[in-house]
Amino acid sequence: RLSITSTLRSQKKRKLSGWHFGVRVCAWTATTVGVMNTILLIAAAAKFPVLDGIGVAYEGSCEVVDHWTTWLHILINGLSSLLLSASNYTMQALAAPTRAEVDRAHAKGDWVDIGVASVRNLSRIKWLRIVLWWILAVSSVPIHLLYNSAAFKTIDGGNFSTKIPLVNPPSTVTPDDDEYYVTMPSDTSFLPSLQKWWGQNYDNETLVERLNNTDCINAYGTNFVTGRNHLLTITTETGDQAKNETLFMVEGTTDYYDSELRYRWMCENDYNSSHTFQLKCATSTLKKHVDNWTINGRKIDYCLSQITPSHCELQFSVQILVAVIVMNVLKSVAMFVTLYQQKDATLVTVGDAVASYLDQPDDLTKGRCLMSRKDIKSWKLNPNEKKPNTDPMPVTFYPEKTTWFFRAASKGRWITAFTLIISAIITTASLLGMGTSQLQGDGASPFRIGFGSIDSRAFISTELPESGASGLISSILLANLPQAIASFLYLLYNSLLSSMLLAKEWSSYALRRKPLRVSHPHGQQRSTYYLQLPLRYSAPLLLISATLHWMISQSIFLARINTYYDGNPTEGDDMSSVGYSCPPILVTMLIGIVLLFVALAMGFRKFGSQMPIASSCSVAIAAACHRPQDDADAAYLPVQWGEVESEREDEIGHCSFTSGPVLPLVEGRMY
């Protein structure tokens, strides 16, 4: 009975400590996110109309849609960052080796990583953990490629006509231009309905708004006009009475996907048919001389704007939400399987490894107490032989004057991480430069386009389809590709910080005596809920990651446009593209630069002791744990690393972790 009670207590303690507790939190976090997504999908699909997998949660004010999409994307990026962090934690726990797996690797002259996320370990651990690791890794890809486009806004790219004064059309106007320039009454075939409406309603303040020139330019100086329809520009100048001219010119706006500006008529004071379609129009310049706004020689006094309901929509994709939920379920299942099927004691933290080797020292590393990670090559007989060199190899201790945190991670890890991060920053800067140049060329102010705001001048030009389902899918994948890249860079950055903090923890054992930080404590050992990054590092990093993902979602995003004419949707004129916004691109780049300099600043920190840097190398860790014979319980007591009493008869000293007294190492002495 006592044995059963003791076992139950041990199991309960195991559940509430170490990586088991961490994975439990991760599993329930992933499950909670999945349940939230499922409830939102079911509720939205039941309440709102869905056509071809696209639901409309709201139609109306663009300000309301902007408000909801902003908060939804903050929520989405927060949840996706939680999933990424939970996956990373569980993947690191899965890749941690057991003592038996480490011993097998050492017997072959090989080594494994301990205490950090490791791809290297995948070929050296059991197949079930490999499968679970890959499920967590692969399921992250669709989430980051799709999740941010689960909810999106669609704006109204309405078509309307603009009546513009024109007295004497230039001789260069050809019959082909009649669609744009009409001298009354030579062609009235497509105007009677508009003439009738304006005649009946021009003074109706509920249907028509009088705009001064500045407001008129602001309202119609965009390719996507919402909440307004046809426009009448008014001049006090008279036309040619002999021709009975009262309406001087009519221009119908082009479709939204036309390469030209729909509001170029505002700048057509010097029209000729040879250059109209290449005309640029800077509304900022017009507003500087707004009192002299002139179109084809006629000074505009004010405008009359037809007021219509806004047709912006908050839409959601059923297929995307289903895909995200399926990937979410896979993650949750993999985490719970990890929790309940992983019974073997794995060496998750460096404390786990030290405790294991103090309890059962590794004979293959005996006599190499000053071994560091960089000495691993001397441990092998030669690269082709699958066995280690077990001969003792004393070395003379000459402490380095300064040991930087840079040494904690391998050169390959630093080069890979910094190359990719710097490449991402340079790419972001290039996109910002090209976007700024493109917008300035179109007469727009790059930094006045708001976060996530759709502007036809700020579209990424590609050869991808724009209409229908194919246009939507291709735009979603392109818009979210940076999200997947950012997630990968987060994992690299996390691994880099973990390596440096692991080495810091390792080095601290040469400065003072303290208990080992292990997954499942015994004796005076300390429990730990984190693997290597303490909460003071992991929490800010998670917050920065979520912020970065949200900034990316506002920098490059799905731009979806539906076209309306006289308040009615036009068939087949929907468009999906990828828009960009310069302000969040700049903020994203600055965040990347700050993270880069934080890593550099960490790298230039100094270790407090002269202890050889084992990093995450299992061989170097094992070599430092050959305790004195009479210190059998060292693993369960507070320990310190330093010179201990040597069992050798010669003058060669020995250093190790021990619960007994230690001395500082002597410069010039062999150990």
Automatic annotation (TrEMBL):
State whether keyword Nucleotide-binding applies: no
InterPro entries, per database record: DUF6536
What is this protein's name?
DUF6536 domain-containing protein
DUF6536 domain mapped to chain residues: 19-160
Q: Which organism is it from?
A: Pseudocercospora fijiensis (strain CIRAD86) (Black leaf streak disease fungus)
Q: Which domain of life is it from?
A: Eukaryota
Known PANTHER family for this protein? DUF6536 DOMAIN-CONTAINING PROTEIN (PTHR35395)
Membrane-spanning intervals of the chain: 21-48, 68-89, 127-147, 316-340, 414-434, 484-503, 541-565, 585-604
Cite the entry's keywords alphabetically.
Answer: Membrane, Transmembrane, Transmembrane helix
